[in-house]
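seq as requested:
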Amino acid sequence: MDILVVNDDGFDSIGIRILAKKLKKYGNVTIIAPNSCRSASSHAIEVKNPITVKKEANYEGIEVYSQSGYPADSVRISDTICNKKFDICFSGVNDGLNLGTDIFYSGTSASAREAHIEKMYSVAISCDKNSFDIVEKELDMVLEYIFNNNLFSYLYTLNINFPIGKYNKSKGIKFAHQGYKLFKTGFIKIDDNSYIEHGHYIEEDKNTESDVYLANEGYITIVPISLDQTNYDSLDKLKNKFN
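struct tokens:
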């Protein structure tokens, strides 16, 4: 089994190295990732400029490549670099949660979604900021759960989050739906022409079956995410009214 490991934090980040090392027992692992942090790049891709690829020093016997494009480009260029089609793509472990509406901004989730588009099994994994202790302790359990239960599918990407940072041990794994986190963005003027973002979350999902709520309660959450974003209830209503 050929396993591609990607992320948006960069090829030498803590999370990608933990993930790649723990995946070695499941197959042949290759890391391809941006040459610097590309957090919050969403599903951007490089279409006008060349992508520069560099073979980096192997990590724990794993081949490592850096590339100058966006996170999703790691998946797009993988078969060209390695001259093979990968079976599974794991993205992460991201240094920062990707719960609820975070996934629209996340390069981690987008990279896994790109693998889904390219007909690979795909998984995105994230943890709270600087919370790699729980990842080190419980990632093996999460990976065993995925592989032993054959949770892979071409119908979805698995978006997985460890619980929020106050927990050093999870309460277990819960399947959930994607919730919401409403973020009010503000900007501070720092000179005549420049502004820097600041802000805070003003509302989080209280639905007890959402990933946002369950991560706040100490659970590892798994959300199967589809490429199809159609709201079918609304579509049916619009069809009945206007078609």
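The domain at 2-178+207-242 is CATH 3.40.1210.10 (Stationary-phase Survival Protein Sure Homolog; Chain: A,).
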